[in-house]
Structures are given as C-alpha cells and as structure tokens.
Amino acid sequence: MSAVVERVQRAIEAGGRLARAPAESRTRALKALATALVDPEVCARVLEANARDLAAASGLATPLVKRLKLDAAKLETMADGARQLASRADPLGDVLARRKLDEGLVLEQIRCPLGVLAVVFESRPDALAQIASLALRSGNAVLLKGGREAAESNHALAEVVRVALERAGLPADAVQLLDDRAEVDALLGLEKGVDLVVARGGKEFVEHVRARSRMPVLAHAEGVCHVFLHRSADPAKAARIVVDSKVTYPAACNAVETLLWEPGAEAALDASVAALRSVGVELRGDAATRARHPEMTAATDADWDCEYGALILSVARVADLDGALAHIARHGSQHTEAIVAEDRAAAERFLAEVDAACVFHDASTRFADGYRFGLGGEVGIGTGKLHARGPVGVDGLLTFRWLLRGSGQVSAEYGPGQKPFLHEDL
Amino acid sequence: MSAVVERVQRAIEAGGRLARAPAESRTRALKALATALVDPEVCARVLEANARDLAAASGLATPLVKRLKLDAAKLETMADGARQLASRADPLGDVLARRKLDEGLVLEQIRCPLGVLAVVFESRPDALAQIASLALRSGNAVLLKGGREAAESNHALAEVVRVALERAGLPADAVQLLDDRAEVDALLGLEKGVDLVVARGGKEFVEHVRARSRMPVLAHAEGVCHVFLHRSADPAKAARIVVDSKVTYPAACNAVETLLWEPGAEAALDASVAALRSVGVELRGDAATRARHPEMTAATDADWDCEYGALILSVARVADLDGALAHIARHGSQHTEAIVAEDRAAAERFLAEVDAACVFHDASTRFADGYRFGLGGEVGIGTGKLHARGPVGVDGLLTFRWLLRGSGQVSAEYGPGQKPFLHEDL
Question: A225-367: same fold as A3-221+384-401?
Fold first, then answer.
C-alpha cells in the first residue's frame, strides 16, 4: 500500500469514528481547540514556529509575509471560529424529511458527513484551524496541505488540533497534515477515498489541482465582482462601499473589479472616483466615463472580464438597471454583485434578478465570507450552482442518505391498479 | 448565432420568466398538464403517435418495445406525478436561513432554480412528462432529447406540455425538444448556458455524455446493489425481497446484483435460491455458497463488481455483519443497499454504517425511485455525494443565493478589536 493510500485509509477509519461519536464529543473537541488557541503556552509555541517560518521567508513579497504572519489577534479569530462552531447545533443525523410510503414502510432523509476531505491551501496558516474546525463540526476527516513557506506554523497548529481531538476522546487521525507536493499529487491521482477536494489559492494553483484531480473538486474560483451605482445612490455610502470593496484585500476573490454607473448617478460616481484615487487605486474607464473623468486610462475589452487582484478598477457607464443586469450577466463570474441605491424597488429588483452566489444591497462585496456570514469560517467560496454556493461552511461539507425501514414490502405490490402509496409526511 | 445557442438563449429567457412568475402559475401549468394527460382526445393523439413509433420499431428487442409502448396506465402515472407536484408547496423563494449580521445588515439564503437543464434520455417516452413536471415545479427551463425510436411519442408529449404552459400564461419555450444527436453534441460542447446536464440511459450512453460535456453532468450511474441476509432474516420475506429486487426490472440501476448471507441465514438463503430459480434467474456462487448449492455456477472475481442488467445474480457468504459491511464498502457503487433481518439492532447498525445513497431494511431495493419516494418522479438517480444523492426530484433541481441587505456597511468596521458581528438567527 502506498503511503498516501495508507493515510487515506486511516482518514476513512478516523472519519467513521468521528461521525459515529456522540455530538457532545465533537463539541468538546471544538471547545478544547478554542481554549488551546488562546492558552499562553500554546500560543507561544505556535508563534515561535511562525517566527521560524518568517525568518526563512526573507525573500517573500510583503503581502505574502503579511498573510504568513500570525499574532494574538489572528489566534483569537481562530478560537472565535471554533467557539462559534461549538455553540452551533450538531447537524449529523438531522432529519431532512420523514415520509410514510405505506403502513410499516417509512422513509427518512438524514444528514451525514461527506466522509474524507482534502484541502490544499496556500500561505495563510490560520486557514488550517478554520478548516479543521469546520471538518470537526461536520464530522469529516480532513487531509490538509498548506503552503511550504508556512510549514512550521502548520505543523504547530495541526498538533494543537490533534491534541484537542484526543482530549475529546476522538481519533487524532481525523486531521492529518500531508507532507509535500508529491504526496498531494499522489492523492489527487487516486480514483476514490476522498469525497471532496477543496483548492484554495491563486487561479493557477486552483487550475492545477482541478486538472490533476480524479475526485470532485470545490474550486475557490475567479471572482469578477461588480458594484452598480443606481441613480438614487447616496454618494457618501457609494464611496465607502466601493473603497472597502476594492482596497481592504485586493487579492481576495470578493474584491470588486468593475464599477458600473447609470446616468443620474454622477454625484455617486464622482465621490467614488475621488475616494478611490485618494487611496491610490488605478482607474480604467470606458469612453462615457472618461468624458467625465478624462484623466482615467482607457479601458479595453479585456478589462471587463479581468480579475485584477490588485489596486486597479475598471469603470463603465450602463444605460440603466437593465443595462447593469446585462453587463453583469455577460461579464460577472456569479460570485458577488452589489447595488448602491436609496430606491428600494430598484434594489429589490437587482436582488431578485442577478444570478450570482451573493447579491448585496448597500454593503461591501467583502462581506461575502464564511466568517462574516456567521458560518464559523469557510473552506472556500463556490461560484458553481451545484452542491454549495458562495461561502462554504458546515452545510457544504454534509450530504444525506435515504433510509427506508420496511417490514417485507416489495415494489411489485404498488402502482396503478394496485396498492397506492400513502406518501404522508410525518 | 448557431441554432443550439439560439435555443439555449430562448431557454434562459423562458426560464427567467418561469422562475419569476407567481407560484400559482407553475401550479396551474402542472394541473393543466395532469388534466390533459388523461383527456380522451389528447390521449388518443399521444397513443397514435406512439403507435407510429411502435410500427417503426419492428426490429427492436422485446424489453425495448415494452419501454417504448405507452398505454392508458402509463399516461395516468404521468398525470399522477404532475398532480403530486401541483399539490406540493412551491419551493422558490423559500428562506433557508435569515441572520442579522448587525443592525441594518440582514443576510438571507433563499432557494432558486438552477436555471436551464438539459436532459438526455433513452427510449421511455414517459420520462419526458416526468422530467418536464419536475422542471416546472422547480422553475427551471429544460431542453429535452429522448431516444430516436420514441421521436413521435416525444413530440406529441412535448406538445401537451407546451400547451399546458401556455394555458397557465407561461412561455412554451421553457420546455423544448432537441431535434437530433448532432444538436445534443453541439449543446454539450458549449462552455456555458446550461446549468445541469442530466444523462439517463445505459452505462455507455451516460459515459458518452459525461465525456463530451463541458458543463456539470448528473450521471445516472452504475448500480451494484446488494441484499444482505442476516442470520435473523425471515426466510419468506427474504425470498420475496430478493426476487422483487432482481426480477421486476433487471435493467434498472436499483436492481440487486449480489446476494450476501452469513452463517445462520441458511434458511433465508435456501428460500431465496429456490424462489430465484423458479423465475429463471441464473445464480453464480462463491465456494462457500456452492458447498451448499453445488448446482450454481462458480462466480469469478469480476462478478462482485458487475452490474449484470440481466437475470443473473451473484451470491457470496460473508463472515458476519462486519463482513457484509466490508464487502459492500469494497464492491458497492453507493447506490442502494438492503438488509433482511428480524434483529432490529443489526438492521439499525446496517442503516447507520453503510455509506450509500439509499440504505433499506426489509424492503426491496427497487423502492429507490423518485416516484415511489413521493418526489413526484425523478430526473435521475445520483450515486455521488455532492449536490443531490439518490433519486433526484425537485430539491436536486434547486440552488440558492445569499442576499445581503445593508445600509452602507463596510467590512473594515468589523473584526477583532472593532465592531463584533451579531450573527443573530431571525
């Protein structure tokens, strides 16, 4: 048996024990994890490991170092995620439907874990605690592989999680760290054993994982998000929302890439442009926008489909709300779309008609996030429509089974001209 | 614009109108469809079209002709499916979660249709009415392509559906029939426009669709289902269940392929073997089974992974319930697994531990079906764990969107050391 097959086998077994344990054990493990993450001794150990990573990372660019660096506030956020999840009702065994098909023939649809997850993520070590917490609450085993530059931090954090599992009487092997890229590639090449592969990171990295994997992948995909300024938009709100959506984390998939405005929204546009410029955002406008703001660079066709991941924003005028809907339908990536409008009816039409995972009114696109949504973190953000959509928390890590309890019934007894089904919801 | 792109475009627009129409319109269309399917004049027209297909099908094998042939009972079953769905609450706009993130910042998770479905199915024309009914209730537009040999029947049935849509004031283009295989191939080659492709038919056909499609496919995949005879099994029940599971429709994916038994279940095994033999089922046993029933053919390793689709059944002895669980984990296709047992504790353990879409106690595997489950039919049966699992009815044709209604909030206001989120479920 290859090393990776043996690891997957251990994960399957540990996952089974984790899922069959009483809900209280999973809650206890989450509480133990939250406590450990703010324990001074544990914190010191994790931060020391992180310091070793930082020391080795002298060649890295500043934003990467910022993502790599752990501190007390980040540990507190991780602990808070684990606490949030500990206080949530355990979902395993939840009955989604119960139906009497006939006397003594009862159907149940019950929630259960997917089984084994594999999560491959880049740089940020805090993702490890977040993902492990979500796996614990959903009863899934998880194989984790973080960025090489965070190796020491990840090992220290994984150890904290494994100790928390053991304190709750659960198998430590429910959370395992994969050693290197070769092991990940071997894993992705397996035909079965992992129920969901989650890829978090840059576009190229996610594409690499998606292309190699023979098992289902949840790709934390491209985000080409828009903010549309309706003619009723409040200029001050517009400027705040557009700036927050662009500059708080330009590399995030929920950052805005294109600002749309309609005639009548000039004051909101002007306020947004001034605010963006004052924080150093490069603006690229279409002809109509440049007629008003001639100092902008001219946008090309490629700009409307581009995820800049940087302090660049394209700006386009649309004819009206319909024009905004059409632009978003054509160029959006079904991630997060926002309207700024005081006109409630216009906002509600936008909320009803935009086909995207997240649709916002008068709020920053950056709220599209599992922690902010109150999901206790996220394993990723899905832009497909199947299974999970938007920030994926516990719910996206669950599936269900149909259980039928009979007393000897056979299908040939039922049907037209024979016994009818009762189909009575219980 | 190519013909197929134009059709998809019409489907997207019709789907939008269908989804935004009041629930009552979709209910009215379903009722109109149910009424039409049992209207003498409509029935006569559909059966005449079916007679033309049958006349052209002189070369087909008997089971195919049986699937192709429509009669009053089949039309009544289709009408009953539409009626079942008309009486179900409309799911669109259902609020799955509502959470106050902060004052004036409220998150909602609401159900919505996937958008446009493409369903490619073989032979059985009654599938058309079933699928169209599910699409209607879920607010999805659907592009349909049935088997060539059922072309006349499919055209007649599609016309009935389209008339029902128009009677309810809904766009007929929400249900469109694709003309030929070339159009299907062109459709599968598109990069977007269809949200879910459903493939129903033989293994090769499903593989063809899966390999060609660039859009997500729900593959009605292989079913290697088992019935396990526990030592507490009632012999008469066992024989009934095993025979029904095998012979009522051997080509169905929910038919049983392997019978497992443990020491102590000899009486149930003997009763099952005798009943199966009396209806002409070929049996292939492992050494332990053949020691008791030497007249059986010897099973080879390949038998344990085979979906026969025919009146053939393999039989294996396992050491005990654990042995049965291990055999199923190794050879099952996570479709439908059943135990026959009077011992409640053994049955509950089986229900809890088998990882499959459907797990049954003392009931035929053939109950794994959307119509029998009370889902108003099915577009297919999924054996994956993501999105839908088991028989896929209305729920599997829905997704959701996250709507956030704010009043100017931005993400930088919140977080450790700043404003906390309320995360209050409403």
Answer: no
Mark yes or no for CB contact A99/B374 under 8 Å.
yes
Q: How many CB pairs under 8 A join A and B?
A: 214
* Whether B165 contacts B96, CB under 8 Å: no
Indicate the pTM of the whole model: 0.90
For residue A1, name the pLDDT band (cuts at 50, 70, 90).
low
Rounded to two decimals, the ipTM of the complex is 0.91
B405 touches chain A (CB under 8 A): yes
Segments making up each domain of chain B, as ranges? 3-221+384-401, 225-367
Laid out side by side, the sheet with A141-145 consists of A175-177, A141-145, A116-121, A196-200, A217-219
Indicate the fold that domain B3-221+384-401 takes in CATH: Aldehyde Dehydrogenase; Chain A, domain 1 (3.40.605)
| Chain B partners within 8 Å of A216 (Cβ) | 384, 386
Chain B residues whose beta carbon lies within 8 Å of the beta carbon of residue A379 = none
Helix axis angle for A40-56 and A72-86, nearest 10°, is: 130
Contact A417 B390 (CB under 8 A): no
CATH of domain B225-367: 3.40.309.10
Measured in angstroms, the CA of A349 and the nearest CA of chain B are apart by 11
pLDDT digits (tens, 9 = 90+) for A147-195: 889 999 999 999 999 999 999 999 999 999 998 888 999 999 998 899 9
Q: What is the pLDDT of residues A198-237, one digit of tens each?
A: 988 877 888 888 888 888 888 766 789 999 999 999 999 9
**Are B77 and A421 an interchain contact pair (Cβ–Cβ within 8 Å)?**
no
**Phi/psi of residue B191, nearest 5 degrees:** -85, -30
Closest CA to B300 of B291, B282, B287, B288: B287
Q: Is A363 on the interface with B (CB under 8 A)?
A: yes
